[in-house]
Amino acid sequence: MLDSLKVMKIYSAVLCFSLVVTSNSGAIPKDDHDKRVFDKELSDIEHGNDDTHNPEYDHESFLGKEEAKTFDQLTPEESKSRLAIIVKKIDKDNDGFVTEDELKNWIKYVMKRYIYQDTERQWKEHEVKGDVLEWETYKDKTYGFITTDEDGKPTSEDTAGSYDKMVTRDEKRWKRADENGDGKLTKEEFANFLHPEEVDHMKEIVVEETMSDIDKDKDGYITLDEYIGDMWPNKDNEDEPDWVKNERENFANYRDKNKDGKMDANEVKDWILPADYDHSDAEAKHLMGESDVDKDGKLTHEEIIEKYDLFVGSQATDFGEALTKHDEF
User: Fold this and answer.
1) Which residues make beta-bridge pairs with 134?
2) pTM of the complete model beyond 0.85
3) Which CA distances in Å does 79 have to 67, 102, 140, 238, 282?
4) Are 199 and 176 in contact (CB under 8 A)?
5) Would you give the end-to-end CA distance of the chain in angstroms?
6) Contact predicate 205/172, CB 8 Å
7) Which residues are CB-contacts of 250 (< 8 A; sequence separation ≥ 6)?
8) Which of 48, 52, 230, 267 could form a disulfide with 263, with the two C-beta atoms 3.0–4.6 Å apart?
9) For 239-281, how does the pLDDT look when each residue is reduced to its tens digit (9 = 90+)?
């Protein structure tokens, strides 16, 4: 067995390698267990229940995470003023009311705006030839800072394994996104490469990557031990916290649908890409229920402004691009 010093050396090297790769490009990092569920939430913040509701969840869902952050210092008057501009954009038919569908469509737009902005940012970081990005160009930009030998292998043994795994994963996802098989990606295909959970033909690669991460014995299934080990390695042999015990129950009651003690690919897909719950719809219903004072099933602009703290609080957004540019919403 490796002694503890050796283990720490390898762990540190791999950690540094992963951080450098992630900060230098759009390389595909290994997701944390609690972030594997792609349709899990509209925000990383806990939503809470009716008794412990967290308004920051509503703010990020309605505004977008980055935009909400930039307006922590707005006064209530500034928040209301900016919210009034947004309400007019949400009211697509200009009838003076915001319906639940209009609210839902806005929340979905906020979610998709991040994908668009992220794709644009990363597209500009690469040397695009014409209107396509070649695999070798992407690979060189993403991993070119790593010292390799004449065969293209990392000279550091500590990073070789991680390097090979990440390049292999990137290339496999690249080929799946490359619909015409020419080795190049258009901007739309590049968006699918970066955010495969958003398009049907890419969702299987998300499942495959998750299986690859968690299925340690490579038998094509995720056992309870592998599931728990991914979220809580427990290298220090500590007492199991309650949330881990709850995850054991979730595995038995919800994840393992056929009750054979393990998850197959279909069960993993149901877990990380749930199709039976629409968070945008649920959030729209929540905001509507909290704001619709006269219970007529629609919101006046005044009702929304009156409840500004629910929608934006002191974290209203300027919606910089949404307000100053002619976007598609």
Assistant:
1) 184
2) no
3) 13, 21, 45, 46, 24
4) no
5) 58
6) yes
7) none
8) 267
9) 999 999 999 999 999 999 999 999 999 999 999 998 877 878 8
